[in-house]
Specification:
heterodimer, A: alpha+beta, five-stranded mixed sheet, 16 strands, globular, B: alpha/beta, 5 helices, disordered C terminus
Chain lengths: 475, 183
């Protein structure tokens, strides 16, 4: 009898999801799917609102990465106004975006994924969480807490609050950086950098303990997509959207954001509210690609900051230019934390960083605008159309997590085939199915524009599609 | 009262007030509203050793702020007490039974703070009785009044000059003890 396993809801991710694993007559995995089961529909209900409200409304998509939506939305609005924002406004936006990168990566690595690495994939589930870490590894847990606090504090200092700051606006930002806040942020950098380097050093010690996971955690060739700077270095705020093949060789690039639809198309699957973008020239589903920290490191020639570049050299010596296993997202995330902190320091030292010219004002000058930036988990696109009065007529959002949807689904199938035995179901098997999703650090609230917590359900289905076993976890 | 502080973390604050809840879910925003009102009330007094934080949820990184305080007050909305009423209770570190997702209880925050940062401030939970947590960004009348009353009371408690015990009337002393116990 064929059966299906359902994991509901997936734990230690951001949002609601469910995984189903279909077994064949012999109890082997025949198919697996990752379902995102929440929906809010921001694209629809913003219609009719003035474009000036867009950054503040779009930031409400998510309580985890509101800053990413602020950036992409503000850039789309800049395009609608047809303004070039003051250089210092761009610097300040970059600072906030990097702070977001650091705090989000710290949450993903320390709080959500590291319990698997420290206690093992088959470790006691009661311990595999941040409280288990605190119990047994308080120093390590402290580094995670303080790195996240570092990023959140910077966002709070710039935006007035840590969640949903209304500081980034169409045309720039609404207040300059004060000397006091610059000094305060600068004073936090040495401590944050030390913690980030300690985490990277720790990861060097554990990364070789998981050869099976490296082999089968979404380890297959895909394209990579992400922003790079004009000199092809790591970039998160603005630049060229680069598409590479599975070896990291560029196959296409997008300098003008409004042309994104010529390279990216979106498919919809019946089993999920999460859309499945793909590289249009290769078609669906062959145009599968990955975004996020691993993709960005594949695409960039270098980081452009000394300590991150040193770490990237080690990364490439060990893994080559285009590692295919998604297990390596963890390492890439740590390198980006180091980069983020170094780049923050560089931006704070810019001679014009206290300049008060931080906003360009204009009325709407175009009826269509697109903003592309890099969220911590990958490329984020906001595309708006307005009427002559500046009211929203239409919106389309392509979210980082959606960009990874095809890869996550294939990863779930791969890891389930390797680790799940339907005849002898064990918790550690199912944890690996969840852990492959955690590598991508999906934010399901963003990807379906829904408010989320994190329960996951795994269902075991018969060949006839009936649920014969289920494992459900609540947050 | 603090446990032995192995990492010698300096106490930077006398009082940390954390108001939490979702301001877009009606009265659930009572906690953040209280933190914001209190912050405004304290501003003219220059209370540098009092800090107010307004947030949606209690998240692990708040442990860093909590560890720097001598006393922490968590303010949340509650449907379990009569609308407009306020209940105050002491809270102690408590290991959470469930897996961590993103948000923690005050007891779990204190546990995290004690384990990771070796700090254990005095802690209180102030629950504001509310009547509705439906979608909307406006507090109900009862919740708004309770927030206003509580903000005034806390501001008074936090900024009033401390008089030597010998100068105070015995009945006033008694009254102050009672209030202090309730806060």
């Amino acid at each position: 009898m064929n059966r299906t396993i359902t994991i509901e809801g997936v734990t230690r991710i951001e949002g609601h999801a469910c995984i189903t694993i279909q077994l064949d007559e012999a109890g082997k995995v025949a198919d697996a799917q990752f379902h995102v089961t929440q929906f809010r529909g921001f694209e629809k209900f913003v219609e009719g609102r003035p474009l000036t409200e867009m950054p503040a409304i779009m930031a409400r998509i998510c309580g985890i990465c509101p800053v990413s939506h602020l950036m992409a939305s503000s850039k789309a609005c800049d395009d609608l106004l047809a303004v070039e924002i003051p250089p210092n406004a761009a610097r300040l936006r970059r600072i906030m975006n990097l702070a977001q990168l650091v705090q989000s990566h710290a949450l993903s690595f320390f709080h959500l994924s590291s319990p698997d690495l420290i206690f093992g994939m088959d470790g006691d589930p009661a311990k595999r969480n941040i409280f288990g870490l605190i119990q047994d590894h308080p120093d390590f847990a402290r580094d995670g807490i303080m790195l996240r606090k570092f990023g959140q504090d910077i966002i709070g200092l710039l935006g007035g609050k840590k969640i949903h700051p209304a500081w980034t606006v169409p045309g720039g930002v609404n207040a300059p950086l004060t000397q006091e806040h610059r000094d305060q942020i600068a004073s936090m950098i040495p401590d944050a950098l030390a913690r980030a380097l300690r985490a990277a050093e720790y990861f060097q010690r554990v990364r070789d303990c998981y050869p099976a996971e490296v082999d089968d955690f979404a380890n297959f060739p895909t394209m990579f997509v992400g922003l790079v700077s004009a000199d092809r270095l790591l970039e998160h705020y603005d630049g060229t959207l680069l598409f590479s093949d599975e070896h990291g060789a560029p196959v296409a690039e997008l300098r003008e954001p409004r042309g994104y639809a010529s390279l990216i198309a979106e498919a919809v699957e019946k089993h999920s509210f999460l859309k499945s973008p793909y590289f249009r020239p290769r078609g669906y589903p062959h145009g599968i690609y990955r975004v996020g920290p691993l993709a960005r490191l594949v695409l960039a020639e270098g980081c452009g900051t000394p300590l991150a570049d040193r770490e990237l050299d080690i990364f490439r010596q060990r893994l080559g230019r285009a590692p295919q296993s998604s297990f390596h997202y963890h390492w890439a995330r740590l390198i980006e934390i180091i980069y983020g902190i170094e780049m923050l320091q560089r931006l704070l030292e810019h001679p014009d960083i206290l300049s008060e010219h931080v906003r360009a004002r204009a009325r709407p000058n175009k009826l269509e605008g697109v903003g592309i930036s890099e969220a911590p988990r990958g490329t984020l696109i906001h595309h708006y159309r307005i009427d002559e009065n500046g009211l929203m007529r239409w919106a389309n959002l392509i979210i980082a997590t959606g960009n990874n949807n095809l890869a996550m689904n294939r990863g779930v199938l791969q890891v389930a085939r390797r680790f799940v035995d339907g005849n002898r179901l064990q918790e550690g098997m199912l944890n690996r199915v969840e852990a492959v999703i955690r590598c991508f650090d999906p934010c399901l609230s963003c990807s379906t524009h829904a408010l989320g917590q994190m329960p996951l359900r795994i269902e075991l289905l018969t060949a006839q599609g009936e649920v014969c076993d289920a494992l459900q976890r609540q947050d | 009262m603090r446990s032995k502080d192995k990492i010698n973390r300096p106490i930077e604050l006398d009082t940390l007030v954390i108001g939490y809840g979702n301001p877009m879910r009606g009265d659930d925003g009572a906690g953040p509203a209280l933190a914001e009102q209190l912050s405004e009330r304290l501003q003219p007094w220059g209370c540098g050793r009092v800090k107010c934080i307004s947030c949606m949820q209690l998240t692990p990184e708040l442990a860093g702020d909590i560890a720097a305080a001598r006393r922490v007050v968590f303010v949340d909305a509650s449907l379990d007490i009569a609308p407009g009423h306020v209940a105050i209770r002491r809270v102690t570190p408590k290991s959470p039974a469930n897996n961590f997702s993103h948000h923690l209880s005050p007891g779990a925050m204190l546990y995290l703070c004690r384990r990771a940062l070796n700090a254990e401030p005095d802690a209180w939970v102030v629950a504001i009785g509310v009547e509705s947590m439906q979608i909307g960004d406006v507090l109900s009348l009862l919740a708004a009044k309770a927030v206003d009353r509580l903000a005034r009371h806390l501001a008074y408690r936090l900024v009033r000059p401390r008089k030597p015990a010998t100068q105070a009337h015995p009945s006033a002393q008694q009254g102050r003890r009672t209030k202090r116990q309730s806060l």
